[in-house]
Design goal:
The protein is globular, with a radius of gyration of 22 Å. It has helices at 17-27, 30-37, 44-51, 99-109, 124-130, 145-157, 176-180, 191-197, 201-210, 216-232, 240-245, 247-252, 260-268, 282-291, 313-324, 339-347, 357-366, 368-389, and strands at residues 57-58, 73-75, 78-80, 84-86, 115-116, 136-139, 162-166, 274-279, 296-299, 329-333, 352-355, 402-403. Helix 1 packs across helix 17 (357-366). Helix 5 (124-130) links the parallel strand 5 and strand 6 (136-139). With 412 residues, it is α/β, with parallel strands linked by helices. The strands form three sheets. The protein has an eight-stranded parallel sheet with strand order 4-11-10-9-8-7-6-5. It has a two-stranded antiparallel sheet with strand order 1-12. It has a two-stranded antiparallel sheet with strand order 2-3. It has one domain: TIM Barrel. Helix content is 44%, strand content 10%. It binds flavin mononucleotide. The site of flavin mononucleotide (FMN) has 23 residues, from helix 2.
C-alpha cells in the first residue's frame, strides 16, 4: 500500500516565468501592468520576440555522462555565474517600491548584475551604496553633451563599470495602453481610476509612501533643461513643473537628432567597456564596433516597445554575429522566457542575454526575493536542459547544437 500526506493547500510556488507573470497580473493595478506589459502599436514584435524562439530545435545527444554543466561566463567584462543579466528598466518603482535596489541586490546574490536605467527609480549613488558589487549603467543620450558628460562622471564615481548606450528611443514608441492611461507626470486621478485602483490599496499605499516612481537622474536633467528653456524663452509665465509635465518635453530631451558622432562623444567620455543597446541591423553593429570602438552590442528592440514590426531579436541575431562576432561581444534581449531561449541565443552566437519583464514579474510579487526566484528558475532550466542535450558548458554552445526539423545536424 502506498502512503499519502494530506495538505490543506495545493503547492503554489511559481515554477516558471509564466507562473510569475500570472501572479504579477493579479497583484498590480492595471495602470502599472499596462506600463510593464506594454508594446508598440499592435504588439506584433512583442509577440514575435517570444514566438520566434520556438522555431528553433535543440540537438539532443544521449549518454554523454554530463550531469553538472558549467554555466559561468563573463558579461560586460564581469564574471557572472550564468549567462543571464537584468536589463535596464525605467520607473521600476512602479512595479515595486523597492525597485532598482532590490533588483541589483537580487542580481548580485545570484552572481549576476543589473544594468541600471537612466530612468531608474533609485539613482546611481543609492544603488551603488546599497550593493556590494559593481553594476552597470544604461545611458539614454538625453539632455545634451554637457549633462551627459556629468552623468558619466557620476556613474564612474558610484562604481559602475560598464556602459550600455540605448539608441532605439529616438522618439517614444506608440504604446496605446500607456497613452490611454495618460501616463505622464503628474498623474491625473479620475474617479474611474481611483475605483480601479481601490482593490490594490497596498500597492497604492506603498507607492505613495515611498514615492519611487519617477527617475531621479532623468527628472533632474529634465528639470535643469526646463529651467534653461524657460529662462531662454522669457518664461512666458509657465512653471518648471508644468513645462516638464508634457510628454513632448521629456522626449525632446532625448536628442532625436542623435547620430554616431554623439555616440563617439560618449565613447570618448567613458573609459570602461561600452555597448550599444538597441541594434537590429548588421551594418549598425559594424558601425558601433568599427567606427565607435564599442566592445559590443545588445541586439534588442526594447522588448517590442518601440518600432512595431521590426525583427524579433532572435531573428536579428545571426546576421549580426556573422558580421561582428569575430571581434566584438554580442548580447541579446527580448522575449527570453525559458532556459531553452537562453540556450538558443547562445547557440546563435550571443555571449549572454538580458531579461526585462521576467524579473519585473518576480519584483512585483515579492520584491528582491521574487527577482532571485526568477533568476534561479533560469539557472535551473539552463542547467537541466544542457544535461538533457548532453552539452558540458554554456561555452560549448554553438550553431551545431541547433537543428531545424528535417535537417541533418552538423558534426560538433
Ligand atoms: C517596463 C519597461 C521599462 C523599460 N525601460 C527601459 C529603459 O529605461 N532603458 C532601456 O534601455 N530599456 C528599457 N526597457 C527595455 C529593456 O531593457 C529590454 O530591452 C526589454 O525589456 C527586453 O525584453 P523582455 O521584456 O521581453 O525581456 C524597458 C522595458 C520594460 C518592459
Amino acid at each position: 500500500m502506498g502512503s499519502f500526506r494530506f495538505r490543506l493547500k495545493d503547492g503554489n510556488q511559481p515554477l516558471s516565468v509564466e507562473d510569475w507573470h500570472q501572479r504579477a497580473r493579479r497583484k498590480l493595478p492595471e495602470v502599472a501592468l499596462t506600463y510593464v506589459e506594454g508594446g508598440a502599436d499592435d504588439k506584433t514584435t512583442l509577440g514575435e520576440n517570444m514566438s520566434a524562439f520556438r522555431s528553433w530545435r535543440l540537438r539532443q545527444r544521449a549518454l554523454t555522462g554530463i550531469a553538472d554543466p558549467e554555466l559561468g561566463t563573463t558579461i560586460a567584462g564581469t564574471q557572472v555565474s550564468m549567462p543571464v543579466a537584468l536589463a535596464p528598466v525605467g520607473a521600476m518603482g512602479l512595479a515595486h517600491y523597492t525597485g532598482d535596489v532590490a533588483a541589483a541586490r537580487a542580481a548580485e546574490a545570484c552572481g549576476t548584475r543589473l544594468a541600471l536605467s537612466t530612468a531608474s527609480s533609485y539613482n546611481l549613488e543609492e544603488v551603488g551604496t546599497a550593493t556590494q558589487e559593481n553594476h552597470w549603467f544604461q545611458l539614454y543620450p538625453i539632455g545634451g553633451r554637457v549633462r551627459l558628460a556629468r552623468l558619466l562622471d557620476r556613474a564612474r564615481a558610484a562604481g559602475f563599470t560598464a556602459l550600455f548606450v540605448t539608441v532605439d528611443v529616438m522618439t517614444l514608441g506608440n504604446r496605446e495602453g500607456e497613452r490611454r492611461w495618460n501616463m505622464v507626470l503628474p498623474w491625473t486621478i479620475t474617479p474611474r481610476r481611483a475605483l480601479h485602483m481601490l482593490p490594490h490599496w497596498k500597492w497604492i499605499y506603498q507607492t505613495l509612501r515611498h514615492k519611487r516612481i519617477a527617475s531621479s537622474h532623468f527628472l533632474e536633467m529634465a528639470k535643469e533643461a526646463a529651467e534653461e528653456e524657460l529662462a531662454a524663452s522669457g518664461g512666458l509665465g509657465r512653471g518648471v513643473a508644468e513645462a516638464m509635465a508634457s510628454r513632448e518635453f521629456l522626449f525632446k530631451l532625448m536628442m532625436n537628432e542623435l547620430d554616431w558622432d554623439d555616440v563617439a562623444f560618449i565613447r570618448d567620455n567613458w573609459k570602461g567597456p561600452l555597448y550599444i543597446k538597441g541594434i537590429l541591423d548588421a551594418d549598425d553593429a559594424a558601425m558601433a564596433v568599427d567606427k565607435i570602438g564599442a566592445e559590443g552590442v545588445v541586439v534588442s528592440n526594447h522588448g517590442g516597445r518601440q518600432l512595431d514590426r521590426c525583427l524579433a531579436s532572435i531573428d536579428a541575431l545571426p546576421a549580426i554575429v556573422d558580421r561582428i562576432g569575430d571581434r566584438a561581444e554580442v548580447y541579446l534581449d527580448g522575449g527570453v522566457r525559458r532556459g531553452t531561449d537562453v540556450i538558443t541565443a547562445l547557440c546563435l552566437g550571443a555571449k549572454g542575454v538580458f531579461i526585462g519583464r521576467p524579473y519585473l514579474y518576480g519584483l512585483i510579487c515579492e520584491g528582491e526575493s521574487g527577482v532571485r526566484s526568477v533568476l534561479e528558475i533560469f539557472r535551473e532550466e539552463i542547467k537541466r536542459n544542457l544535461v538533457l542535450m548532453g552539452c558540458p558548458s554554456v561555452a560549448k554552445l554553438d550553431r551545431s547544437w541547433l537543428v531545424r526539423p528535417g535537417q541533418l545536424p552538423e558534426q560538433p
